[in-house]
Design brief:
2 domains, about 40% helix, binds S-adenosyl-L-homocysteine, 7-stranded mixed β-sheet, elongated, alpha/beta, EreA/ChaN-like  fold, Rossmann fold, about 675 residues
Length: about 675
């Protein structure tokens, strides 16, 4: 293997393993990047030099696992001027790493042959600040004492007293201690005062025994394997903790939602996000959770990231006001069609319709609504239709006012641009006047037709918000994003008000709308979202769930307005949350975060990492820039659902409308 290959492997070891397993100290990571581990192992094991495992060296000893070397070095909290003592030089590798972090390294080895080889090797590689001594290290190195830090690379029955004595005040000693010869706990001792030693436990490890006066006896039954020597194993990393805390999903259809419903408790709002707009597993599992919430917790409506007028047709269908099949509608027939027109959604709609017929009185049927604001002209049509029926005079006036926007019907985005450039007057007053008019209608029409009035009012609100949206779209994405998410939240609030006291709703939107924006890169830059607004208002009365995946296929377009494609999802980025989930080696699971049985895991996951978001557009070529952002998962969501390998939703064949296309901001993140 060429030198450059090793260099690359070393880089990968640092980036893909050490960092992910939780090594945070940049100087330690940098030292690990600099020392060529391949030079410290035997010819036969050289090709495994950058596996994160201990490897056999001569005399029945081992070179430690890189992760353990890094963890111990990190725990020593070295300063560049420090003098360090290591017990158990072995190959000399750890000493070389330490030599990049401290001024002088003194290392003691009891096997003469190992000590000699290590000394020669370090000399050849020009590690001039490492000094090797062949001796029993349990006595320390009194001539060079005191030390700022001491590290013991072999398992001891207790902390040898000479080492404590040779530690400077303020110094750190890291040592594996265990009553059994083949398992220990890593202990850190800090000498606070002359006689004041502070002890701290760091996790389970496995080292070869420390043999010597203040360690294990040489004679007796030292079970020291000679062929495959036991080396230190790592303490449980995040993937292991995930494995221990996760609740397995073995079947989407038959999952037992008891524990999840318990965690959700009395929450009035359950937000179920998704990392893509085209993954079948997300849609199906979300539907199953929703069914359980409706059946067992009396949730009253589902509100989704879709246009109000289109979703309203579904509402009418599931509450038995419409007869014709959603499959044949023109609703959701515009880009991105597959997002709602798919088999997964249709199955849920049918379930909901049947459920409503069997289990709910006509006035208590579970509803289905859209919260989004892209339907400027369909909403205007809905208002006009309503007025035609109840008040033809006002309908005429409304046609006049909304007429201001008519020239832009095929391209509302250019309306915004035209207003901004001063070439066209703004229609703001027209739409807000209409909204006021509609809101005042309450008294007159509500008696006759409460539900239809509500629908028309929401459409008038939508027309006003959408007009505003198109006008500010050009000022920058944050402002229009915030306007859109605020509109979605306000619509949700109107719905909650409309249902009876303490009403309960399930939300279906992209993770990036439902995970608290304050815990993400976007929040830092001034963006808010539905999840954050819900959190601020409802606190623990809401429960936010995110869903993610590692690889598989997804339904998405390459460009705005482009055809749906089934695209391969790239395996997740090594620095992402997704990669940690993937490393847990479980196919599908629920992972409670705020209600985890392991607070240590939640803390470990809180440090910001990358998270992937695939919208209606997916560009794997520029994935890192377009689809990853950084976030703190446990602050975004209460719970995380994982499907390691996923597949694209099944789109329904649809009669495409040649209509205009509204822009959809959830395209790519660097929009
Ligand atoms: N740090 C080494 C790995 C150490 S393995 C590396 O990076 O390669 C543990 C080493 O401790 C073995 O080489 C073993 O021979 C040595 N050892 C065990 N007891 C010892 C003692 N009392 N004094 C010095 N070295 C000892």
């Amino acid at each position: 293997m060429r030198k450059t290959d090793f260099k690359q492997q070393r880089e990968q070891l640092v980036e893909r393993e050490l960092r992910l397993l939780g090594v945070r100290d940049d100087s330690v990571l940098q030292a690990m990047r600099m020392v060529p581990r391949e030079e410290f192992v035997s010819e036969e094991t050289r090709e495994f030099a950058y596996r994160n495992v201990p490897l056999p060296i001569s005399s029945g000893q081992t070179i430690s696992q890189p992760y353990i070397v890094a963890v111990m070095a990190e725990a020593l909290e070295l300063e560049p001027e420090d003098r360090v003592l290591e017990i158990g030089a072995g190959s000399g590798y750890a000493a070389a790493v330490l030599s990049r972090l401290a001024a002088e390294v003194y290392t003691v080895e009891r096997h003469e042959e190992l000590a000699k080889t290590a000394e020669q090797r370090l000399k050849n590689l020009e590690y001039r600040n490492v000094h090797v001594l062949h001796a029993d290290g349990t006595r320390g190195w009194p001539e060079q004492a005191p030390f700022d830090a001491i590290v013991v690379a072999a398992g001891s029955p207790g902390v040898p007293a000479p080492l404590l004595q040779q530690l400077r005040i303020g110094g750190r000693l890291v040592i594996p201690v265990g009553e059994q010869q083949d398992s220990q706990k890593l202990i850190r001792v800090i000498r606070r005062e002359e006689d004041d030693f502070e002890y701290e436990e760091m996790g389970a490890v496995r080292f070869v025994p420390l043999v010597g006066e203040a360690g294990w006896q040489e004679e007796g039954d030292l079970k020291r394997p000679s062929i495959s020597p036991k080396g230190p194993t790592r303490r449980p990393g995040i993937p292991e903790m995930i494995r221990d805390s996760a609740e397995l999903i073995t079947s989407i259809k038959d999952h037992d939602f008891g524990p999840l419903l318990e965690r959700i408790g009395d929450a009035r709002l359950v937000l179920i996000g998704e990392a893509t707009h085209g993954t079948s597993e997300f849609y199906r599992f979300r539907a199953e959770i929703t069914k359980a919430l409706i059946e067992q917790k009396d949730f009253q409506f589902v509100a989704v990231e879709a246009d109000w007028p289109d979703a309203y047709r579904i509402h009418d269908f599931v509450t038995h006001k419409l007869r014709d099949e959603p499959r044949y509608w023109e609703a959701f027939a515009r880009f991105p069609t597959w997002m709602w027109r798919n088999q997964e959604v249709l199955d849920f709609i049918h379930w909901l319709r049947d459920f409503n017929l069997e289990h709910r009185q006509p006035n208590q049927r579970v509803g289905f609504y859209g919260l989004d604001l892209y339907s400027l002209f369909t909403s205007i049509d809905a208002v006009l239709n309503y007025l035609d029926g109840v008040d033809p005079e006002t309908a005429k006036l409304a046609r006049n006012r909304y007429g201001c926007l008519t020239p832009w019907e095929t391209d509302p985005a250019s309306y915004g641009r035209a207003v901004l450039s001063g070439r066209y007057r703004s229609c703001e007053t027209h739409v807000t006047q209409m909204l006021r008019e509609m809101l005042e209608r309450r008294a007159e029409d509500a008696v006759v037709n409460g539900e239809e009035l509500f629908n028309a009012q929401l459409n008038a609100q939508l027309a006003a918000d959408a007009e505003h949206y198109y006008r500010i779209m050009y000022y920058g994405s944050d402002e229009s994003w915030n306007h859109r998410d605020t509109h979605m939240f306000d619509t949700l609030e109107k719905l909650l008000d409309r249902y009876r006291e303490g009403s309960k709703a399930v939300l279906w939107e992209h993770n990036s709308h439902l995970g608290n924006a304050a815990a993400t890169h976007f929040g830092k830059h001034g963006q808010l979202n539905v999840g954050q607004l819900c959190r601020e208002k409802y606190g623990t009365e809401m429960y936010a769930i995110g869903q993610g995946t590692d690889h598989g296929t997804v339904a998405a377009a390459s460009n705005w307005d482009g055809p749906m494609e089934v695209k391969d999802v790239r395996p997740s980025h090594p620095e992402s949350y997704e990669h940690l989930m993937h490393l847990s080696e479980m196919e599908a699971f629920l992972l409670p975060l705020t209600k985890s049985n392991n607070p240590q895991l939640t803390t470990a996951l809180a440090a910001r990492r990358l998270e992937r978001a695939i919208g209606v557009i997916y560009r794997p070529e520029t994935e890192r820039q377009s689809h990853y952002f950084d976030a703190s998962l446990p602050h975004q969501f209460d719970e995380w659902i994982w499907f390691d390998k996923t597949s694209a939703v099944q789109p329904l064949s649809t009669k495409e409308l040649s209509d205009h296309e509204p822009p959809h901001p959830f395209a790519v993140l660097d929009r």
